[in-house]
Give the backbone structure.
Amino acid sequence: MQPGATRAHALALAPGLVLLEADAAREQRAFEALALALLAYTPKVSFAQSHTLLLEVGSGLRLFGGVRALLAKVSATVASCGHAARIACAPTAWGAWTLAQARATRVSSRRWHVLKETTLARALDALPVGLAPFAAQHEQALTQIGCATLGDLRRLPRDGIVRRFGDGVLAWLAQARGEAPDPRVWFAAPPSFHASLELQARVESAEALLFAARRLVMQLAGWLAAQHGALSGFELRLEHELASRHAPRTSSLALAWAAPSRDPEHLLWLLREKLNQTELIAPVIGLALVADQVSEYAAPTDTLFPMPEASEASITQLFERIGARVGEQNVLQLFVEDDHRPEHAMSARTWRASARRAAPRKPREGRKGARAPSGEPPESTPAQSAFDLPEVPLPSQPRPAWLLEKPLKLAMRGDRPVYRRPLKTLTRTERIEAGWWDGEGVERDYYVAADDQGRMFWLYRERIGGQWYLQGLFG
């Protein structure tokens, strides 16, 4: 069956064929959604006759790796949006439009990738004149004068063409061949993003929604490119079929990530993981995507040597993907805190909380925590005077890498603390007094100690009470 066949002919060939009335408003919304997605490749997208979109891509060929790579990306985007496209490339807008019409109407099965105006002129001369946008209006006159191709039309006397067809034919030929300017009205992206999609059938599985949501995400990526922005989160709203009297009509899935991004593949990956963990309350018949957490996009630099920002961005995306898979609360990051107390000197927070880390806590006005300088111990203690300080190598690190989750209370043997064996101190006193501002104050004298087998430990003695505790172990 060929385009342009009658209704009776179509029903004769396919009696079970279902015919639908054309909905011009719905078709226009579909083309605007497709134009929004294609803004990811160029800010210059315009509408043309015969359901055609024109993209000016000359300035972005190097960015996307050449003509073939760019056309492949455009074709993949169009397919992701649920459309089939016939794509042609030419130096002029009307030239590309005509070559695309030749392939769409099967006049030619060739994929037209014309880059030079001289090649375009030869290609246009060989095409049927019926492809021109004015051909339907002057079809009978063109047939009577034996004009079969655009080359035949171009070779006719100019005065005769103007007298018979008007000035528009010559102007169109000049614009198609690149001999005259062709100003266009470019499609303008809306100031805010809100895209919706009516599903063709009810969807009962959350995983199956990803195929339809891909169209909305591709539109979002194009809109962000047009706005020179990036996104740190969006909301996917689900419209449900009323399965019961108490089922809500709508629900929503909120996604957020640490580093702003506009990469559609990354956003789809996060959405896929979110949908895999979601159970629908009722079948879904419609989707809507709302994005309001938009920030300025910092484009990556094409430098000879990789910048630190690039590695940080990749690590952030890795954290986001792991968090989407196992849960954000299970992805922790360690941080050093501004606190002398060993049990508070390090904290583990979720990677998202660490991205917006608050300022470190500051003690209130009053007595400040202090560490006694090495070689200048504070007031001597009875236990310290009873210990020897042998000449043995001390640990290279001032703190052990292994801290006990809870300090271990040590027994005493004579004047020495015991951990399996009696311990002997190797350093002078290091005093830590801190924590009065949060109600967890400590007053401790710390030592590096060792047993008779050379194993080293980090322990402290309470200034009040004199009890010894084991805090950590050296490797």
About this structure: Residues 110 and 391 are 88 Å apart (CA to CA). Residues 209-227 form the longest helix (19 residues). The chain has three domains: 23-176, 193-300, 382-473. Residues 358-390 have pLDDT under 50 and may be disordered.
